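ok here's the first one, seq then struct tokens
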Amino acid sequence: MKIVSQKYRVIFFGLGSIGRRLSQLVQEHFATEIYALRTKKGETPGFYGVHEFFSLAEVDTLPFDVAFVTNPTAFHVDTALFCAQRGMNLYIEKPLSDSLKGVPFLLELIKSKKLRTHVGCVLRFDPLLNAIKHFIKDRTVIGAHAVCKTFLPRWRPHRDYRSSYSAKKSLGGGVLLDLIHEPDYLAWLFGPIEAIEGEAGKRKNHEIETEDYGELFILHNSGVRSHVSLDYFDEREERTITLWGEDFTLEGNLRTRTLKIRTKKGELSDYYPLFDRNSLYLAELKHFFECLISGINPMNDIFEHLTVLKPLLAFRERMGL
């Protein structure tokens, strides 16, 4: 049985790792007719039953309800403009772009055509982070430290990391945008970003063009100050969040799935199993399609996403990246 029974015709622009994951989930769980624009013939033909196009002229032969923009970051805005001009609602994998070029026109199109948009930041659907959001709802947070350490050579084991978009400046790679999940969920927890300071650049020679580390100090409009540590070179592969409040300390580990909270009353430990990472993407897709049916704006639409992306891009420019 499909999660959402209303039928949509959707098209994917990009069937890399995230495009393949999302197209499979959309096909299996939602009533959709799926197409994809491919760059060349012979690339996994008939993948998951997707109908293939090989030119934009072919795309124009059919009307589409939804476009999934899952190609490299540097191509997102041009792709979104093409789709928005044709009245397609937009699901864009994070981040929206590596620059603001074309974004004002895109926003005008979205408003004039009353399109629904969503920028995929799947950690907002993580039950552990949602438990943290619920816990701090009526509490005062003083500060936070989010860490995402990954080892790029091992991240995508079936391809040469040096040719991946993460490694290529021209494709919009680098830790600041590639690992935008951390600044995004901190803004979701503590409010929009007012300022970012810190440093970012290259520390190790992994034969990549992009920055491999970032230390960000963020001021949120709520007054909370957060610290984000990102890198591509740590083989320990850590993903954690620590919060300090007036009467508590909280430690969450998104890899071990543990949450520890210390208060004056003692320590509470809990475990949030994640048996299948697809469950997070499925929850995000369900939210998006239900918003289409109900006619309301999805969480983290392009306008909300820009409250995170704009200060990140400004910081990136100051770092000369």
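and now the second one, same deal
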Amino acid sequence: MKKEEVSGFIIACLSEPDNAAKQQQLQDWLLEDETHPAILEEYRQLWQATAQLPENDFDMATGWENLQQATVSRQSPLKTAYRRYWWKAAAVLLPVILMTAWWNHHRQQGEMVTYIAQGSLKDSLHLPDGSKVFLRPGTVLRYNKAFESRTVELQSGEAFFEVVKNEQQRFTVTVFHAAVEVLGTSFNIKTSTEYTDVAVWDGKVRLSADNSRQGVILTPATMGKVDAYTGQVEKLAGAFEYRCGWANNDVSFSNQSLGTVLNTLSSIYQVRLRTADTTLLQENITVRFKNITLNEALAVIREMLDLKVDQVSSAEYILKKMK
């Protein structure tokens, strides 16, 4: 066998360990010269290195420098003439190593994760950057596994985000007709085929249509809305921190109608709350429920408005004026 054919021969044998014919040829070659086992071992070490590559970025310059240092420091008993085999092995296998590292890195960059929320009331998810998301059942999120751009796509449903602050990179939530950009904050976003609305608990966000640079700035308790058909973005009047309560168990109403309060509590506790007299729904109250049960919340409303609460089934309550 010619010296220039040795590299290809060894690589072919290492790549097909189950090929009996090639393995026999390899054994015959090892017996031809006392230096051949050492040459094979050098190739085998490089070959095994390709299976131990990390999935993060591979630094080509550093890798080549390490390879050079390894060949200089290694005290090999090989004859000077056979040192060329080591460099031939490096020349053949280093591109394999680099291509494998590149493929692993870009595979991870392109790999998407789709998460569908489970549970009866809400689900939660930790994103790769440490941010936390609470999701209504059935809500669908999608994001890149590498998460280098800190972008999440809300495909459907409703989610509350607690975003880890990063001054160097914004956090973005996109839907098919709107986008929300933040540095570090907590906010609720709900999307449908007709509109997307965003309510801020703390911090500041910018709501725009289809990643447009124009939009509205939202601060705590404010809410913005994007029309899916016209792309119009508007900032709504009023206090909307209660829209976040289903996720953080802190439901705050500031001069809201009883109708809004009951609808919100019905959604959170999965019950039906109604009044015997519909005029009661127009009465405004200011109240905050933090980490309390439905019965405790109803007791507070009852005392505030002098009402009677009748439970007509396991999941239905009627509020009436006291006689």
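notes on #2: The mean pLDDT is 83. Residues 257 and 282 are 5 Å apart (CA to CA).
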